[in-house]
Amino acid sequence: MEMRDFDYYEARAQDVKLEDITSCEGNAEILRRLRDQSWDTSLNRLSIADSYVDDWFIVGEGDDLGWLGYFIGKSEYLGELFIFSWGEEEHIEAFIEGINRNRSIACLSIYADIGGVHFRNLLPFFRNNINRLAQLELNFEVGLECAQSIAFVLDENRYQSLESLRFEDCNLGEAGFAVIATALRNQPQLEELHLDHNNIGLTGCIALGETLRGWGTSNLKTLDLDNNQIGDQELQALAAGMTNSTLEELYLSDNLITGAGLRSLSEYFQSESCCLKTQNVYRINFGDEGAVALADALMGNKSLTSLHFFPHQSGITNAGWAAFSKLVCDPSSINSTYLSNHNIETIGEHGMRGTPIYIRRYLDLNEHLGRRHAAIHKILKSHSDLDMNPFFQWKLKLLPVVINWFQSARCLQSRELSALYKFVRGMPALTVVSYWQQQGINNQTRRRRLDVEEETAWVRLGGRPRDEGNVEFIQIGAKRMRQE
């Protein structure tokens, strides 16, 4: 078979008829749009497959993937490339060489097995797009050889623009993922890491935990570890590296975690650097022990707003729900209620159909009132008789603050009147003195206003009269005006 490289296609590009190198008109049209280099007609998204889908390049008999690679390499507008098939791998080296010459692709997704050798051959593409490539996605069975090639590419350079890595359904295994996780130490700029369905095991979790810890300050916002056979020991290894992370979303669904594993997250949740907003633990039977562990860990946490799980699959009984109730509103004392979690808005599934209504009411307060007003509302609802005596040492200075505090809770006017009554009853003499002091202040204010009005009137009349005979009359008139 004739060897074809980029130079072969370059020499024939001017004269080639696209209909002669493709199996259908649709494929010819795709090559035409890649070749035209016009911003309004060129392709910015290309999918390659072996079964028919509208607007996809369908690899069939008569298609030369080398020509497709050549035009991909020449394109200045192609931003996303999705590879679902390599065809029968004829001219695959020329196809990869063409991809390597491209400098416009920001998203590369490979859903067909490429093998370790061919992936390593893509290294020039990654080098050429070190400041362009934003997302790399692999979704095929990755063997150890291919995993080592992936690690080699990731360890070669820091890809400044690379924000998202998706290795989904790759079945990397412990050894395969461990080498990739170690290579990721060179990519602290990543914002998303999706690793679901990979069976990463204890070795992989230890490697990932060390990478997270080694990053120090990183940009990672999303970590997806769904369905990885992660148990308590694996989660403990991960948690050790998450303490200083900037994660906002953590997905742990479909794993083998119990309450002991969830308790290992306590230090992370209570650290000042914790930024986590969403945690998913769907389809995990963590039971009451896990519910208590999560509730204890989230006490004092100020970032998490959503804790997602399916109540009917979690194994939680009334004891577990009691722990969550105490988390969002601890009625044992006013201070305990104040220190409850006023940030979390969802416990359970979306819509919270299986979450007890008494917990949902507190979560609704958190969502709609905000931390400060939610705390006030819970205190007033949970403690029917507030002791005002501790406030008396500041006399009436705190009374406006107390009134504003009650008004913030709305719809609790009777409690506001009760507090005012306790202030008046506790300091009757001070209340009366304050009343007359206020009256004196009001009278002084009125006199100053009249003086200003008098002076303004004289100015409008051209000034005060200089006739001494009229001065006494004027003074008498001004005195009467003040008395009135």
Architecture blueprint of SSEs:
Blueprint: H1 6-12, H2 25-36, E1 45-49, E2 57-58, H3 65-74, E3 80-83, H4 92-100, E4 107-110, H5 116-120, H6 123-128, E5 135-138, H7 144-156, E6 164-167, H8 173-183, E7 192-194, H9 201-215, E8 222-224, H10 232-242, E9 249-251, H11 259-263, H12 266-269, E10 278-280, H13 287-298, E11 306-308, H14 311-314, H15 318-328, H16 334-338, E12 346-347, H17 357-382, H18 399-408, H19 413-426, H20 428-460, H21 468-483
Parallel strand pairs: 1-2, 1-3, 3-4, 4-5, 5-6, 6-7, 7-8, 8-9, 9-10, 10-11, 11-12
Q: Runs with pLDDT <50, length 5+?
A: 429-433
Count of β-strands: 12
- The termini sit apart by 116 Å
Q: What order do the strands of the largest sheet run in, or round the barrel if closed?
A: 2-1-3-4-5-6-7-8-9-10-11-12
Largest sheet: 12 strands, parallel
The gross shape turns out to be extended
Strand coverage percent: 5-15%
* Percent helix: 40-55%
Describe the structure.
- By secondary structure, the chain is of the alpha/beta class.
- The chain has 21 helices and 12 strands.
- The chain has helices spanning 6-12, 25-36, 65-74, 92-100, 116-120, 123-128, 144-156, 173-183, 201-215, 232-242, 259-263, 266-269, 287-298, 311-314, 318-328, 334-338, 357-382, 399-408, 413-426, 428-460, 468-483, and strands at residues 45-49, 57-58, 80-83, 107-110, 135-138, 164-167, 192-194, 222-224, 249-251, 278-280, 306-308, 346-347.
- A 12-stranded parallel beta sheet has the order 2-1-3-4-5-6-7-8-9-10-11-12.
- β8, α10 and β9 form a beta-alpha-beta unit.
- The radius of gyration is 36 Å and the shape is extended.
